[in-house]
Amino acid sequence: MIEDQEAGMEEGDTAFAVHAEPGLEETTRAARTDGAGQDTKRWLRDEAGPALAPSPRALPAELAEEIRTASTGDLLSWVDQARLQAERPLELEVAVARTAVDRAKSHVDEEGLVLQGLQRQLAEAGPWWRPGSRGRRSDLKARIAERQQVLTRLSQHLRRTEGQVSELLPTRQAALETWAAQQRQILDRAVAAVQELQRRESGPLDGHPFDLPEQLERARAAGPAVDEIAPRTGSSDESPTSTNSTEELTEARAQIASLDAARESVDLALRRRVAGAGRNDDLSIAIVGGSITGPVLSLLLRQAGFNNVHVYEGTPSAVPQAGGVIGLDHTSLGVLDTIGVPQGEIVPFPSQRVISIKMADRRELGRVQTLWPGRNTTWTLAHDALTQRLPVETLHTGARLVGLEPGGDGRAVLRFEDGDRATADLVAFADGRRSTGRKLLDPDRPLRYAGYVAHRGQVDDCPPELRDFWRYEPDGTQFTLFPIRQPDGGIGTDWTFYLNASAEQFRAHFGADPTTRTFVLPQQVSADARAYVDAMAAKLLTPNAADLVHRTTRRMAVPILDIAPPTRMVYPVGSSRAVLLGDALAPVRPHTGRGANNGIDQAAGLVTALAEHRKDGVDLDVALTAWQARCLPMVTESLELGPELGRALGLGR
Ligand SMILES: Cc1cc2nc3c(=O)[nH]c(=O)nc-3n(C[C@H](O)[C@H](O)[C@H](O)COP(=O)(O)OP(=O)(O)OC[C@H]3O[C@@H](n4cnc5c(N)ncnc54)[C@H](O)[C@@H]3O)c2cc1C
Q: Which of 164, 199, 236, 260 has its CA at a distance of 20 to 30 angstroms from the CA of residue 270?
């Protein structure tokens, strides 16, 4: 069901009405990330169609002579050449540079707002000699100085990116002119070639032989509907050039026969691939963890023809530990689409907008709108859509892995809590933040508590203007909101409130260490924790947002955790292999929006590597090592980005 996205932008007197401070509104610039410049229209359709109609214009003498003596094969290949869409020079580079400018501008705007908020707080902090005011003033001054430095750095970055665009533009203009001249030439020659082909249709002229009827048939269609011309008939070198008609005919026939044979062999190969899909029993694959990464991996493997794939999930039915809203980028959504999970099924609110609401003293200072290259789903929607598509006999719930070792024949043996066992050639651990796989394979990378908690909650109603991802950013915390579809079809709200907390405070609130209780389920949220979150909402959030928190009955919490960057993903287990992926490899901070995306990306890469091994005979270890080399930099980047974003929000250590 598609909601009216514009409704979210209107201000009103409902629960989430916002009142920008006068004067600040103008300073808030809506950041645009429009699809800067890449022209996706087929230029040939627009330009070549009319141009290919017989033209009264006289051909240049040189071209006329070239055309008159050319073989039919050459003529057709010139028409084909005009059909290829030559890429406009530097188009992508300019689009990327412009997007970088937009992004840099929006960062400067955001930082400017934060600075203004702090300056306002300083102005309102009272004279330095008033009791209590001195400490607050010097704290604010230090923060202002820090923010000014950040703003200077961001402004320098903005100037650099703008400089890059200005440098690119003249070069691109010159390249475009050369490109246009070349394209014009190609087009002129194609137009002349079509006219010549049409002329030859009527019989031998000027000593030319009859052409093959098949070729002329294609040529006839080559007028305005140039796209209908048959595929290439070979390069001009292979084309018949002899003026001896019998020889030319034989050679052209042989050429066509070889083309047909090539086409048949392609068909055969395709048929074999299709028939072979789903019949590969070579590799048995065990996936540990049936949340997001595990089921995606299983479905991709099945699609690639691996049939011996089983998913082992520790809980009787996977509980929504990762909680509510998850932003998936377009690449991940594309991967899900290829395994038959369309966006419409898992994205009830298709907004890409992120509204950052800057605030201080429970008042809104202004808003910055950015676009995020993806869409929001929920853990429940994504998980249900994926697991419903797994063949039931391959999803084993209540199967908690406790051990892994090589068996007598060298293959990996998985041991489960209930005493069951299974063997596999490849074991993929997608068992999340507290991964047993990571503990077994890479025990020197323990989880580290980052010093803050994502408190989460869901209510059954939703302000009608909330259809985008909203981010309130009072100093030292963050409060995010997004609408969710309720089982009864109604619209609810999912919120996350990030608050600093020592490990002792976490233990007092949730009864266990943050690296042990990595997800706090509703029944584990103590009354003290609830009271604390309510008090912080009353202290930091706008009255309407605080009210939403206060009336939330269903609550959860997630301690934010860090981990050292991994140096490998692939491990030998006897003659088998084990791999770590998703949160099992490395849980990343939620502000990066990369956790589930990394898992899906790694799953897709792993399947490509395994398919290379099976189909093209690439050595398994070579394929897996290449996959690992592609994935690790992205994981390290996410792990480094998280603490930076946390620091900018005043969250964590
Ligand atoms: C507040 C918050 C917001 C987030 N927002 C985003 C976002 O916007 N975008 C994004 O991409 N990511 C986001 N994430 C991260 C995302 O939720 C996780 O990265 C994602 O769920 C990881 O999926 P996974 O399948 O790898 O692991 P998990 O979802 O943790 O699943 C692991 C599964 O393995 C099972 N398991 C564990 N141990 C065993 C065992 N021994 N044997 C068998 N089964 C076992 C568990 O029961 C579970 O089902 C967010 C996370 C949080 C906390």
A: 236
